[in-house]
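[09:14] KT: can someone run the structure on this one? pasting the chain below
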Amino acid sequence: MCGKVFISPPLICAILMAALLLATAWSYGPFGDEFYYIDCSKNLDFGYVDHPPLVALIVLIVRNLFGDSYIWLRAVSALAGALSILLASRITKKLGGGRFAQTITALAMVAAPGFWAIFSFYSMNALDIVIIALATIVLIEIMMGGPAQLWLVFGVIAGLGLQNKLTMLVFAFALLVGLVVTRRRFIMTSIWPFAGGVIAGLIFLPNIIWQVVHGWPTLEFIRLTQQYSIYPQSAFGFLWQIILALNPVVFPLWMGGVLYLLFGKEGKKFRALGILSLVFLLTYILQRSKVYYVFPVIPLLLAGGAIVFERYCERIKRTWVKAAAIATIVFTGLILLPFGLPVVPIEYFIPYSKAIGLVRHVQIHRGDRIDLPVHFALKFGWREMVENVARAFETLSPEERLECIIITNNFSKAGAINYYRGDYGLPEAISGHNNYRFWVPGNQQLKAAVAIGIDKNFLLQYFHDVKLFDTHIHPYAATWEVNQEIFVCRNPTVTWSELRQRLKWY
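[09:31] RB: done, structure tokens below
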């Protein structure tokens, strides 16, 4: 039995994913959000404007064990990527899939550039996929007649999921709909589902209290992100992005999973999961959200589709169909791999990207580049930006440097400066963006400032002397991180307490 475990295709796929993620962890550079999570871990709290606290707690643990390098954080994501494949294979087996179905599920995940992208840097999105896959396995056990006490386990997983990302709220809502509209609603008649909900609520309670104390900033953040940040598109356009991000070849597989769970005779006992997946998908499709928000439910759908395909192959008894399917998934996965994983030098990737034309159809933010996906673009230009800020800082007199602040317009710039500042003798960066506005010191001396990405007219409200020092440019950076003006500001017209009150933006 041990031999079978070691040679199982899903395990090989999981090891391959982890190995490639670790081997390319140094490629391109740190991702902008990773800087932010490091600073969040230095200011550990029960909540943050744009995410719950689990992601920061994990960073703190990693930093204390291994140091501040972002590479160690990517090792966590690599592990999450490997676990996601093993859990997807486990879901397939729980639903009744055999070895071939489990193999197809694992290969389909490896062939999806979107999954490679998510697991190629540290973020709460990588953890989200693993947590919801675990929750899905517990739900399958319950629907197969497992002990009702498993709802307590589900409650713990759901609570951790809520402390990682609010995707779990959508998942729980979709589950409730699925149970209510199917005959499986009887499993909610005992006390155990409610006990599980109480456990989840208690685990999530510290974040709720933080939201109340701080005036529910996450709700404002979500509203403004929907309004100004997310790329506007139709529901069909969003669905097309999902298809492209997951590899168009496997679209019939996960769509077949939806149909299998909703209408398949063998999947009848799991009909509630079919409703769950449909509600989950429609919630994000109708909201025109970011494409990777739907990824946590994809392992379940791939599992269902793989079972359908396995049954089909058993009926027609054509071995070559299996071989052709595996070959097609692997071949297209290799072609699309550079779009998710930095395996190609950037100067070669851009012409390759233009030739394939995939990126122009997968836009996440307003103003995304059409030749470079955002998960690559946000890995370029950070140290160069800090070097430019440091050169501006050097133009100040020694006295001015002692009482100088560095202001940035977003968390990525602030985090990058704080990550590299020890190499350049810079003070800690200050920003009004997201959670940085809560970390602005209350007793800062104000004599001069170096500002990057801040509008000059804003700065002129608080300083008599505002001079453009340089403009940060990088050929591969995200569009909103280039042409960033760096100003040197002197002779403040207000006190620090007056200025810090204005430092708030999302």
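[09:33] KT: thanks! Confidence is low (pLDDT under 50) at residues 1-5.
[09:34] RB: yep, looked fine to me
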